[in-house]
Amino acid sequence: MSKPYPTPLTIEPIATEHTHTFIILHGRGSNATRFGHELLQSANLPAQLPTVKFIFPTARRRRSTILKRVPINQWFDNYSLEDPGQRTNLQVEGLCETAAFLRTLIVQEARVLGENGDGYQRIVLGGLSQGCAAGVFALLGGAFGDSGCEKLGAFFGMSGWLPFEAELGDILRTASDGKVRDSLDGLEGSMQRVGLGDDTNSNVDTDEDEGEDKGEVESSDEEDGSGVFESSYDQDEDDFNPFEDDVSSSDSNTRLSPSFQVINHVRDILDLPQLSPQDDESNPSTAAHLDIPVFLGHGAADPKVSVRLGQKMASLLSRLDMNVTWKEYIGFGHWYKVPDEIDDVLAFLQYRMSVPVT
């Protein structure tokens, strides 16, 4: 059983009204007290957001592979910041536990906010660096609320990256290519059915004759000795596949849309139930958690987490049809830029979800 997470730092609204809650994750090696107080004071956020409750969780201590197994506060272990795709197996346990922790925290806070049933949509999830990475991965997995279909109000990330971005990108490309091939195959089949394929009309009678010939099978002496028999299979019986159920169950993910296939890969990593083709076709609300505004900011001169990693994250989320706002800060390094980036985040949240900003 995993160790419990420390009690989050909670800052109540300075106004009497509580309209929104921000859950913001610190970077690797930090904690809620150090990160939370510095962020609030540097940007004077309580005064600018008087109706917002701030929750700063602390990552539990995990042994860091890159620091020779020294225990530090981190949301998940990762081997390299230059290439987060190396040894991704190290990331799975922490990502899974952190996402589960966040889902529980979000449910609790939604109940506080949700007298009118809109509690989830008044929650903003955000993070810096590894906190951004853990938060956005939990966001992709979804499964928020008792229904598993609740969506949050917004997400913002600063100087972050997307775990498993290369794998998710490969799934998206492969699935999209498959959709194109299926469309072309379907078009070719339609052309043949209406007589536009090569030699289709000229071979109709011949094909029927060949089918009758193939229905006659000579038995061997080891069988019942009845000699030649005529097959009684009709077309439906000939198409029967005794392994059809096994094939359809193992191959069901390939019938999902590209976005759902990506979600299922994330959910597999997070040990969440898989979405089915029925969810994709008849219950799109199961992917409602993707239908939220996302702000991603990154210093163009970041020496720790390359801006290229942030760009890749923004690109993949956009290809999932998420509403992504991306902004680079020229000459800035690894952190959040005050006041520029904080002002951009607040303007974004005010515009996208009507967060009161003074």
From TrEMBL:
Tree of life domain: Eukaryota
Record-listed E.C. numbers: 3.1.2.22
Renumbered residue ranges of the record's region Disordered: 183-255
Single Gene Ontology MF annotation: carboxylic ester hydrolase activity
Catalytic activity: S-hexadecanoyl-L-cysteinyl-[protein] + H2O = L-cysteinyl-[protein] + hexadecanoate + H(+)
Task performed by this protein: Hydrolyzes fatty acids from S-acylated cysteine residues in proteins with a strong preference for palmitoylated G-alpha proteins over other acyl substrates. Mediates the deacylation of G-alpha proteins such as GPA1 in vivo, but has weak or no activity toward palmitoylated Ras proteins. Has weak lysophospholipase activity in vitro; however such activity may not exist in vivo.
The name this protein goes by in its record: Acyl-protein thioesterase 1
Species the sequence originates in: Aspergillus wentii DTO 134E9
